[in-house]
Amino acid sequence: MKLLLNFILSISMFLYGIELFSNSLGNIETRIKTILENYTNSPKRGIFLGTILTSIVQSSSIVMIITIGLVNSNVISFHSSLGIMMGSNLGTCITSWITSFMSKETISNSLLNMNTYIPILFFLGLLLYFKERKRLSSLFIGYALFLFGLYQMQTTLHPIMEYSWFKELMNCLKNPILGILIGVVTTCLVQSSSATIAILQTISNKKKLTYYMATPIILGENIGSCITTLISCIHTNKNAKKVALSHLFYNIIGTFIFILLFYIFDFFKLNFLNYQVNSNSIALIHTLFNFLSILIFFPFLNSFESFINKIVKDKY
Q: What distances in angstroms separate CA 311 from CA 10, 155, 229, one per listed residue?
């Protein structure tokens, strides 16, 4: 029970660190709104801006919630939001690469290991706070909490992995469909796809995880990440609901395509599926899935838009 509480606290610290970091960027919502209003007149620009903004604020949920608000206010069109949605999925991958640099198994050089800089970031944050530079102080402290929460999450998970129920859960990963469900449920519970990826990366450094076991969870967390978007569109107009539904269907269809390829690879007994993954491999899978999803969807974006329009028209 103590380990479980410590794990919950570490996730809370991880998520609070991201929120504090995002808030420290100033009036972030106003700035993002201004950028999206002025520079999303084409899907290509939307993809670019969605990727950059999500990479900066470390949260696709923030970008998507702001986008839903703008569409609900008729500031930008549903068509323009599609590019932002795809870009936000890609931009969130930056956190998984940061997480991979937190792993001692991946990087042994202490100068390159992000854990080395946690005390320095805290110290700079406190120093700036007493100098009444509170916004800059929050940026350093938020990032330090993000890294420290991640470190604590990794530390707490190590003994949890030895429990019998955890080992039984690992056996479930041999079934890809169950792997997807685990990814969906975990992301819905912790309200963060970044946290789910971080947990998976931590497990991969201590337990033998293969591409066959890890890939379905990564696909599932993309679907689970839509829960925040769906909740935020409850009291909005039709166009805003289209944004939330497009986010959901985009990830469901993308997952279906990739799991179909996954089964084809498995049918032909391709050896790479049984290769062991590490933190870098998981970050790469996460990035490839979201990048390839953009390449697959972009030529059919108008058809996808018509599909969502028809669903909302029939339903609402």
A: 40, 45, 17
Q: What is the mean pLDDT of residues 247-271?
A: 89
Across the range 295-311, mean pLDDT stands at 93
CB 58 within 8 A of CB 22: yes
Max avg pLDDT among 73-77, 134-138, 171-175, 259-263: 259-263
At position 289, the amino acid (one-letter code) is F
Which pLDDT score is estimated for 106? 46
Rounded to whole angstroms, the Cα distance separating 62 from 92 reads 11
On average, the pLDDT of the chain sits at 83
CB within 8 A of 117, min separation 6: which ones?
A: 147
pLDDT per residue as tens digits for the range 55-82: 887 778 878 888 888 888 888 889 989 9
Six-digit token string for 175? 């079934």
Regarding pTM above 0.85, the answer is no
pLDDT of 138 reads 83
Closest CA to 139 of 122, 119, 154, 151: 122
Instruction: Identify the bridge partners of residue 276 per DSSP, sorted by sequence position.
Output: 210
Distance CA 230, CA 63 (A): 14
